[in-house]
Specification:
Structural class of chain B: alpha+beta
Helix content of chain A: 25-40%
Largest sheet of chain B: 5 strands, antiparallel
Number of helices of chain B: 12
Bound molecules: flavin-adenine dinucleotide
Number of helices of chain A: 17
Number of domains of chain B: 3
CATH architecture of the largest domain in chain A: 2-Layer Sandwich
Order of helices and strands of chain B: EHEHEEEHHHHHHEEHEEEEEEEHHH
CATH superfamily of the largest domain in chain A: Aldehyde oxidase/xanthine dehydrogenase, molybdopterin binding domain
Oligomer: heterodimer
CATH class of the largest domain in chain A: Alpha Beta
Shape of chain A: globular
Structural class of chain A: alpha+beta
Largest sheet of chain A: 7 strands, mixed
Radius of gyration of chain A: 26 Å
CATH topology of the largest domain in chain A: Aldehyde Oxidoreductase, domain 4
Chain lengths: 684, 292
């Protein structure tokens, strides 16, 4: 089914300038915070004077200097403001305040920091043989994972490749930011966030304050892609400054700071080896992954190692598999989630190998994949529950018109499993008062328009028209608990919670009103119900992409069209489904052809502007065709995950299409411009 | 990303502007379209105490042929170059370049004078001026003078302009009959600075023999590069002479001294120069023959 565009366009609100973002907040007496950052990738801090320093924080708070990330498996904490060493360019060292941003930035001159530069560790391949970055650790290993069992293989085809995905900056339109205000007892934080609850937990932990003295309110949030889920040093400093000065404090990240100091995703190297029969059936997989965890073991490094390797088998039936994976420290900003967060890596590595099998056996790329799909759900040797993939792949190929299009076009395909972050559940609250309904979700929209489906679901359950329903931003004071919006989870879990809370509310009203219950009477009363929804079933879903490549007049390979076929279950708001796919396709293509974060050997950022970081423009966008397979999930409202699908499925399909068009194998992303030429460049 | 405090003055005449620059010395800077200068201020890589905005000086935005030259006032916007029918027809190299400089937003504000005065080897117009026998007219406290494009670009972000000199006009000779030009640029994405760019301006006689050849290179050296040996190699040769074209392309690549960076390796950029010089000669000669 092709997604229809429905007439209600929620983003009209934003493009008319009616949004209210953190930076739109103006409070009486508000101060602006500017953070003084390390110019070195690695150095000893000899002294810091002027401004707010790490020593001041330590003296005034219980737990400052503790890690701001709160991940497990850490032997080193991530300082809010560095006092002993700095370990990436841009690391916060001190902070200054001003009545406006200009003054705050001028005040940076009042801070004097003496450094003794040290040689940074930049190449993850050399991290383990380099001395430890942190003296508290014996080496630079953050996490190690071994999944499956080693095996001896005896297959007619053995194929190996080393694959690489560059580090990427999340780069939402709106960078990070907050306003912190303190009234002498309560700290209120207005946040650009994916999760008010994880911010509250992180602030409480870092500041040594009880959670009930902190309120976090989400403002309109202009994108996140993983960068706004957890807490960062700047938030703790701003909160401290607000409490110290008794004045509201605003901190807004600029783009340069975003590129330097917001956690980056990807940055993984994989050595892959597959064992296959001549008929294309893959019998075994061995993988070794090396993950660039960045400077502190608190970032994504801890969980990413096993998370990626557990997904390597994807939608295929591969009976034997053995995957080792290590995350190692380097003097770069921490590794963090970026749209897909490990899922795209796993899919890219596996799909590249499937294409290699196709090339080796001479079989069509679709045929090789088909032969490796399953008709039954199963649990892979790497421990992932996987749905049957054969029927879905058949549907996708039909939807793509693959067999007729492949005769004329240079096509690439991908098939993948989306493993959503569905564990942990999510909350929602529904309240009726003054003739209107209010709906909250624990994890909220940061640009996806979640309010649309929340209203639609509440309307359906309560029988109240949507124009009487107001969707509320998340606020820790409005809900008793909540999780956050990431990992393709919110339509399923937030949506499920809205359904449950609505049913609860309706049941309460019915109980009170008895036979007199009607929709009109419901709206006359005052009711409130909160639900926490935790699905029992596993909610993995399947997706496929097809990309078509062509050679431009100039003589370079480019992507002409990207088609997606994702099982989103019941699409709640078709227009938003399509928008998610368009945006994610742009990011997926950016990853293939342009986007990356690069550092020099001495740890300086070589991509300090949004242009250098390679963000794709409308001019590079191909035709995007978004199709959905609608196989209801087991949830009451039938939803499945979506948000991350395009960044998982587009890179391998687009890479393959370029490979077919140019006749040259691609193992690294992004593909260098030099390798995209179809014509032979003159040589010396 | 917020500049420190500075003073702003918008004089009404070039002389007034020059006087201010003289009096305030190194602490004063000319502001034209602001598309290179404002980013430097925001990053605090430059912190002048005074900005002298020449945007309010009347009469610096003409674009016309007179006395054997195409004359472009320093404040002509890049977007205006791109809209000009005259340029499209008779000055295709300038026209080509004006369509691939940055993006429409930058082109609407960025000026011819600024693009050239900034001395950025990655800017596109300098190579075009080197290929087209361009000249820069400047006014300073010592009076007026004209500087040849070849003598203008002295180093990265450095030009022959004295601190208190203002570039007022950029001009190129009206081309002879049977002349053509082209500007070819390879970038990552639309709006990016060049990985490499090549400007060609040539004239041919009735027998398609080159009587005049100019070749300029973008983003492959500390300044825009005039590929003199390549120009000489084409003189007196047929534009269809494959051997001569290949020779010229190789000589142009020899003149390039690119560095490896996020846009590609030095080796790659040299190869791009060879490809683009050969293509540029072809396109310019087609245009000289009246095509397009
Ligand atoms: C995102 C982006 C992408 C870009 N991409 C490209 C590109 O692909 N190709 C390209 O060519 N350019 C590119 N540019 C640069 C752009 O073309 C600038 O407009 C140009 O470099 C400077 O022109 P301006 O009028 O904006 O000058 P300003 O920024 O105002 O000034 C630049 C410098 O020149 C001096 N100056 C300006 N005018 C005069 C004068 N008349 N006399 C003496 N000194 C003067 C100023 O003092 C300053 O030092 C890009 C810029 C941006 C922001």
């Amino acid at each position: 089914m092709a997604v229809e565009i429905d007439s209600e366009d929620p983003e009209r609100f934003f493009v008319r300038g009616k949004g209210r973002y953190v930076d739109d907040i103006k409070l009486e007496g508000m101060l602006h915070l500017h953070v003084v950052r390390s110019p070195y990738a690695r150095a000893r801090v000899i002294s810091v004077s002027g401004g707010i320093t790490g020593n001041e924080l330590r003296a005034s708070m219980e737990a400052v200097g503790e890690d701001a990330g709160g991940e497990e498996n850490t032997s080193v904490s991530f300082p809010v403001l560095a006092t002993e060493t700095v370990n990436y360019v841009g690391q916060p060292v001190a902070a200054v305040l001003g009545d406006d941003r200009y003054e705050a930035e001028d005040r940076a001159d009042e801070v004097d920091v003496q450094y003794e530069p040290l040689t940074p560790v930049m190449d993850p391949e050399r991290s383990l043989e380099s001395g430890p970055i942190h003296r508290q650790m014996k080496d630079n290993l953050v996490a190690e994972s071994v999944l499956g069992k080693d095996f001896k293989a005896n297959a007619p085809i053995e194929l190996e490749d080393t694959l690489r995905m560059a580090r990427m900056s999340p780069n939402p339109l709106e960078p990070r930011g907050l306003v912190a205000a303190y009234d002498g007892s309560m700290l209120t934080v207005y946040a650009s966030t994916q999760s008010v609850f994880s911010w509250r937990e992180g602030l409480a932990g870092s500041l040594g304050m009880p959670e009930d003295k902190i309120r976090v309110v989400q403002m309109d949030t202009g994108g996140a892609f993983g960068s706004k889920g957890g807490i960062y040093p700047e938030y703790v400093v701003a909160a401290h400054a607000a409490m110290k000065t008794k004045r509201p404090v605003k901190w807004i990240e600029n783009r340069y700071e975003h590129l330097m100091t917001t956690d980056q995703g990807r940055g993984v190297r994989a050595k892959m080896k597959v064992y296959a029969e001549r008929n294309g059936k893959v019998k075994g997989l061995k993988a070794d992954l090396l993950i660039d965890a960045g400077a502190y073991p608190v970032g994504g490094g801890g969980w990413v190692a096993s998370w990626i390797s557990s997904q390597l088998i994807g939608p295929y039936y591969i009976p034997k598999a053995y995957a080792t994976s290590r995350a190692v420290l380097t003097n770069k900003v921490n590794l963090g989630p970026y749209r897909g967060a490990g899922r795209p890596e796993a899919a890219f590595f596996m799909e590249r190998m499937m294409d290699k099998v196709a090339d080796e056996t001479g079989l069509d790329q679709a045929e090789v994949r088909m032969r490796n799909t399953t008709t039954k759900g199963w649990t892979t040797p790497l421990g992932r529950k996987t749905p049957p993939s054969k029927p879905f792949f058949n549907e996708a190929l039909r939807a793509f018109k693959y067999s007729s299009r492949k005769k004329k076009e240079k096509l690439g395909l991908s098939l993948f499993v989306l493993v959503p972050a569905s564990s942990g559940g999510e909350s929602a609250k529904v309240a009726v008062k003054g003739g209107r309904v209010k709906v909250w979700m624990g994890g909220n929209s940061h640009g996806q328009g979640h309010g649309l489906f929340a209203k639609m679901l509440a309307s359906k359950e309560l029988g109240v028209p949507e124009n009487l329903i107001d969707f509320q931003h998340t606020d820790t004071s409005a809900l008793s608990s909540g999780v956050g919006s990431w990992g393709s989870r919110t339509a399923m879990l937030g949506g499920g919670a809205v359904v449950e809370a609505s049913r609860k509310l309706k049941a309460a009203a019915k109980k009170k009103l008895g036979k007199r219950y009607s929709k009109a009477r419901l709206l006359e009363g005052e009711y409130e119900a909160e639900a926490f929804f935790k699905p029992k079933d596993f909610l993995n879903s399947l997706g496929a992409n097809m990309a078509s490549a062509r050679i431009t007049k100039v003589g370079m390979g480019t992507i002409d069209e990207v088609v997606s076929y994702y099982d989103v279950g019941t699409p709640l708001t078709p227009y938003m489904v399509e928008s998610q796919i368009e945006g994610g396709t742009a990011q997926g293509l950016g990853e293939v052809m342009y986007e990356q974060v690069l550092y020099s050997e001495d740890g300086q950022l070589l991509t300090p502007s949004i242009a250098d970081a390679g963000l794709i423009h409308s001019t590079e966008m191909p035709k995007v065709v978004a199709m959905t397979g609608t196989h209801r999930s087991s949830l009451k409202h039938g939803a499945k995950g979506l948000g991350e699908s395009p960044t998982i499925g587009v890179p391998p399909a687009a890479t393959r299409a370029l490979e077919v068009a140019l006749g040259r194998r691609f193992s690294y992303l992004p593909i260098e411009q030099e390798k995209l030429w179809a014509v032979e460049l003159p040589k010396e | 990303m917020n500049p420190p405090e500075f003073e702003y003055v918008a004089p009404k005449t070039v002389q007034e502007a020059v006087d201010l620059l003289k009096v305030r010395g190194e602490w004063a800077k000319v502001l034209a379209g602001g598309q290179s200068l404002i980013p430097l201020l925001k990053l605090r890589l430059a912190s002048p105490a005074l900005l002298v905005d020449i945007g309010k000086v009347p009469g610096l935005d003409y674009l016309a042929e007179s006395d054997g030259h195409l004359r472009m006032g320093a404040m002509v916007r890049v977007a205006d170059l791109n809209r000009s029918a005259l340029l499209k027809k008779k000055y295709p190299a300038i026209h080509d370049a004006s369509g691939v400089i940055a993006d429409p937003l930058v082109r609407n504000l960025g000026t011819v004078g600024g693009n050239i005065s900034h001395g950025d080897p990655a800017n596109d117009l300098p190579a075009v001026m080197l290929a087209s026998e361009g000249e820069m007219a400047a006014t300073g406290s010592g009076g007026n003078r004209v500087i040849k494009a070849e003598d203008f670009f002295t180093d990265t972000f450095t030009t022959a302009l004295a601190h208190d000199e203002i570039l007022t006009e950029v001009r190129v000779p009206v081309p002879l009959p049977r002349s053509g030009g082209a500007y070819l640029k390879v970038e990552q994405k639309v709006g990016d600075f060049a990985s490499a760019g090549v400007a060609v301006q040539l004239s041919v006689d009735r027998a398609s023999m080159c009587t005049k050849v100019g070749i300029g290179l973008t983003a492959v050296g500390p300044t825009a590069v005039k590929a003199k040996k390549a120009e000489e190699a084409m003189l007196g040769k047929q534009v269809t002479d494959r051997v001569a074209v290949a020779e010229a392309a190789a000589l142009a690549a020899d003149a390039a001294t690119p560095t490896s960076d996020i846009r590609g390796t030095a080796e790659y950029k040299k190869r791009l120069v060879r490809l683009l010089v050969a293509r540029g000669l072809k396109r310019a000669s087609e245009r000289a023959g009246g095509k397009e």
